[in-house]
Amino acid sequence: MYVSDCIDINSAGHLTIGGCDTVELAKEFGTPVYVIDENEIRKNLRTFRDSMNEYYGGNGLAVYASKAFNCKEMCRICAQEGTGIDVVSGGELYTALSVGFPAENIVFHGNNKTYSELCTAVENGVGRIVVDNIDELETLSRIAAEKGKTAGIMFRIKPGIDAHTHDFIKTGQIDSKFGFALETGEAMEAVKKALSTPNVKLRGLHCHIGSQIFDIDPFELAAKVMLELFKAIKDETGVELEELNLGGGFGIKYLESECPKPYGEYMKNVSAVVREYCNKLGIKMPFVLIEPGRSVVGAAGITLYTVGSVKNIPDIRTYVSIDGGMADNPRYALYRADYEIVCANKANEDRSEIVTVAGKCCESGDLIQENTKLQKVERGDILAVLSTGAYNYSMASNYNRIPRPPVVMVKDGEARTVVKRETYEQVSANDI
Ligand code: LLP
């Protein structure tokens, strides 16, 4: 039913998630509210973790990309499931460290980490700082020297792969703000420099080709290109790098019509390519890292809203306005992202209407979906936007001074708040 295993319809005809009636959740926690299923998250984390064992003989680490959804409870879950965490800012790093997440298993990304972010990473012993440029390498070496430490680093490489996804979430091509280019020789130069830079230990190389990718081919190609670079480094410097981080990007189901491949299949196919290429090139099998974000949490989450005004403009369209919008989900405004929307209290009825679901921000572009199928709805109905577990809460803003919704985690019919609803006092707390 619908897009995810954790979603169903109960005998009252109400949509459920994780065994909880969404209409009851809306009553108890208010709307808008993000709801996320813990079992689904753990299942996905285990799929990635276990496939590192199955396909790489345990010589690897699945690292959750927390930009998709970061809060303390999510970091605790990752620690319990034995995955690493990828962070891209001082805030994400702070959250992971604040729950005692093992620093060795933190991967710190970013194309412009600040001096203080780098200091915090070095002081706390973050296992892998993914260095984006030479300036950062030099800064890091100085910071580590001052603190009497050696920083574990990887380099972010642009492998020059064209993954078929939205332009804004493509990252592996040469015209990207992230990392070192391969074609120009920049990557090789950086590696040579790192090998003679004090207080840093180059553990390996990283690439990430983009997000919401359905094909396996671009991942296989990226692995090949990266291993060829490992081989070239071995030939030119005599050093065999130990770690290969292949990034994230596995696609999830937003629409009923979409059919992503099981994640185990990506892992199996890519590992076969890694093994084959290592043999062919005469290099040792590296320790492999992957960084799934969306695929861990995306389909585990939904957002519940209450319908307000329903405005029919004859021969044009019907606007169904909800009590949230681009402030809690900017993805349609940013990427024209697809979503399925269901009326939670009429989930058994046909989605017979074609409507535009609009938010409450003072902006015409504040839409969640245009020309989408929906049951016939009226004021007071509860809408569920599906597959909002990734890049919704984490990308939410206070535009129009709208407080961010809470995050409710559900599990086996029980619900608990893991992030509280913001208050107006909190939204204006820093005003002087
Ligand atoms: N590793 C690195 C270095 C990344 O840059 C990203 C995503 C990931 C891992 C995780 O990728 P995932 O498995 O989630 O596809 N805000 C956009 C997505 C931006 C992704 C940025 N980087 C969206 O809402 O679609």
Tell me what you see in this structure.
This protein has 432 residues and is α/β, with parallel strands linked by helices. Helices cover 30% and strands 25% of the residues. The chain is built from twelve helices and 21 strands. It has helices at 22-29, 38-56, 72-81, 90-98, 115-123, 134-146, 186-195, 217-237, 263-281, 294-297, 331-335, 424-427, and strands at residues 7-9, 15-17, 20-21, 33-37, 60-65, 84-87, 106-108, 128-131, 151-158, 180-181, 200-206, 243-245, 287-290, 301-313, 317-322, 341-343, 353-358, 367-374, 382-386, 407-411, 414-419. Strands 4, 14, 15, 16, 17, 18, 19, 20 and 21 form a nine-stranded mixed beta sheet that branches. Strands 5-6-7-8-9-11-12-13 form an eight-stranded parallel barrel, surrounded by seven helices. The chain has a three-stranded antiparallel beta sheet with strand order 1-2-3. The longest helix has 21 residues, at 217-237. The protein is globular.
- Alpha-beta content class: alpha/beta
* Distinct ligands, ions and cofactors found in the model: ligand LLP
Helical residue percent?
25-40%
Inertia-based shape: globular
Please, how many helices? 12
Chain oligomer state: single chain
Structure summary, number of beta strands: 21
Weakly predicted, low-confidence segments: none
For the CA atoms, what is the radius of gyration? 23 Å
Strand content: 15-25%
Mean pLDDT: 95
Q: Kindly report how far apart the N and C termini lie.
A: 50 Å
Biggest β-sheet: count, sense, barrel? Answer: 9 strands, mixed
